[in-house]
Amino acid sequence: MTTATPLRALALTCSLKPSPAPSSTDLIARQVLDALAEHGVEGELLRVVDHDVKPGVEVDMGDGDAWPAIREKVLAADVLLIATPTWVGQMSSVANRVLERLDAEISETDDQGRPHTFGKVAVVAVVGNEDGAHKISADLFQALDDVGFTVPAQGATYWNGEAMHGTDYQDLDETPGATATTTATVARNAAHLARLLKASPYPPAS
């Protein structure tokens, strides 16, 4: 375990189910956070649907908008995990809303002209009972890169059940070996990259 540089992670789980309903998305997100903890990364999980995140592409959409408080947590974290279920082969509408709100970060910069998200690592976790994890990961990676996050090598973990099958990830007797191994790789690479970026930030804007 490497603990030389303390790091923080935030998992935004994008289940459609409000708490306290059991959630496979929460489960895989917690597994990623547990794996990150083995590398000295302190984690927090937030289920987005429990909060009134307004539609829009601004940092603050006005009265009652819960995003500004969530954004503070995003900016305080070194690693951001977006976890989403798969519905009709797509990420959840909640995950899409998170991406829309993160769009504002493109124009929010520090005193050296860099988006505040520069130097932060983003990883992805996907669950579902149908194919779609690769497409969802690709869409999330592109959007997160656009707004300034850095994606590590093999930065996604996922589980998809058989097509037309009704088993949820949380109903499995044990985590499949391939998913567990991939989750460990995501955590290891994310913690490593986050420490590198913290020690050696991206250069200032020209």
Automatic annotation (TrEMBL):
GO MF terms here are:
oxidoreductase activity
Q: What is the lineage of its organism?
A: Bacteria, Bacillati, Actinomycetota, Actinomycetes, Geodermatophilales
Q: Which residues cross the membrane?
A: none
Stored InterPro entries: Flavoprotein-like_sf, FMN_Rdtase-like_dom
Pfam families linked to this entry: FMN_red (PF03358)
Q: What is this protein called?
A: Flavodoxin
Q: Which residues form the NADPH-dependent FMN reductase-like domain?
A: 9-156
What is the superkingdom listed in this entry's lineage?
Bacteria
